[in-house]
Amino acid sequence: MNISPRQLRMFLALAESLNFSKTAEQLFITQPSLSKAIRDLEESLAVTLFERTTRSVQLTESGRQLAALARTVVGEYDAGLRHMRNAAEREAQQLRIASLPSLANVMLPQVCARLEARHKAPRITIHDCTNNACIERVMNYQVDFALASVAPSHPELRYEEVLRDRFVLLSCGAWRRRVADEVMLEDLLKLPVISMTDASTAMRYISAALLQRGVEFRPKMQLDQVGTIAGFLKQGLGVAVLPYLGMMPMVHLGGMKISAIADGPLRSVGVVSRRQGSASSIAEAAMREIRQVASELMEAHTHWLLPAHS
Fold first, then answer.
1. Higher-confidence position of 292 and 309
2. For all residues of the chain together, what is the average pLDDT?
3. Measuring CA to CA, which residue among 116, 112, 118, 158 is closest to residue 135?
4. In angstroms, rounded to a whole number, what is the distance separating the alpha carbons of residues 201 and 238?
5. β-pairing verdict for 193-196 and 239-243
6. Label partner for 116 (CA 20 to 30 A): which of 26, 70, 131, 203?
7. pLDDT tens for residues 186-233?
8. Chain centroid to CA 12
9. Distance of CA 271 to the CA centre of its chain
10. What domains can be seen in the chain, in order of their start residue?
């Protein structure tokens, strides 16, 4: 037995009007098509649904029973479709992003504010985590894309660089007076450097740059959070090495000095997405906004931020 919701709708329309011609016109089909659909339905159920005469059409007892059942079935079917449609609409407005905390702090507030202004009630979830965790979330379909600083080597992932970020030396208090406006990488070896932990991409960039010179980087302290580093700097416990975007949340703190690292590495900042499948419209919009915010940041901080590799 193969009965479609369309057949049931035709049956209910005819059960209401009891007029083949009127019902066919209402449904925008021909009367022979309607008659065939009703015959097919009766054959599938092995019952007679209508008593037909030259003057009238009447429901049989089986027809009346089916009408009561069909209203329930069609109603539940329509309700299910509405539920699926609403769920699809909610999903279309749901955005999930993984991001390094420093990038989430500096870039994503503007991106999300613009999305809220242009899209109806977007539901945005941001996972601020390590670079590896960001990439894993993209691989596992837990996020739409990631804002990261190291291009993944996995063939299923795409990396689009949006800018490059200089590393800087941040000092405060007495150390502010001792540190020059511009230093070299090897100068870091003579300073009480506070850095991010080995799990951070920032630490890996600096370590790799010094290893290329045959030197192992051994900071005085290693901390997980930029905010914690700021507290240690304020107490005069050392100087900090961070990418420029990573230290931007500290700019509002008084007494901080930014020194350029003339021969320091450049950190890549980009969007990691899956090669297969298509992104949702809101995810595409978010990636466009990230490119725009990156462009605006480069215009505002030309000395510290560079365009992506062409």
1. 292
2. 88
3. 158
4. 21
5. parallel
6. 131
7. 999 999 999 998 888 888 999 999 999 998 999 999 998 888 998 899
8. 45
9. 11
10. 5-90 (1.10.10.10), 94-163+267-303 (3.40.190.10), 165-266 (3.40.190.10)
Within 10 angstroms of residue 177's Cβ, the number of other Cβ atoms is 8
Instruction: Give dist(CA 54, CA 57) in Å, integer.
Output: 8
Round to whole Å and give the CA distance between 107 and 57.
Answer: 69
- For the beta carbon of residue 51, count every other beta carbon within 10 angstroms: 11
pTM of the model: 0.69
Q: Which residues contact 140 (CB under 8 A, 6 or more apart)?
A: none
Per-residue pLDDT band at 56 (split at 50, 70, 90): confident
Integer Cα distance of 145 and 142 in angstroms: 9
Say how many residues make up the chain: 310
Q: What is the pLDDT of residues 103-145, one digit of tens each?
A: 998 999 999 999 988 877 678 999 999 899 999 999 888 999 9
Q: The tokens of 223 are what?
A: 């901390």
Eight-class DSSP state of 218? -
Whole-number CA gyration radius for the chain: 33
Question: By three-state DSSP, how is residue 279 classified?
Answer: coil
Residue pointed to by tokens 């990261």: 148
Alpha-helical segments (H) within the chain: 5-17, 20-27, 31-45, 61-92, 101-106, 108-118, 131-139, 174-178, 201-211, 226-234, 244-247, 281-300
pLDDT higher than threshold 80 for residue 89: no
The β-bridge partners of 268 are 164
The DSSP call for residue 79 is H
Per the DSSP assignment, residues forming a β-bridge with 242 are 168
CB 108 within 8 A of CB 99: yes
Find where tokens 């990156």 sit.
Answer: 294
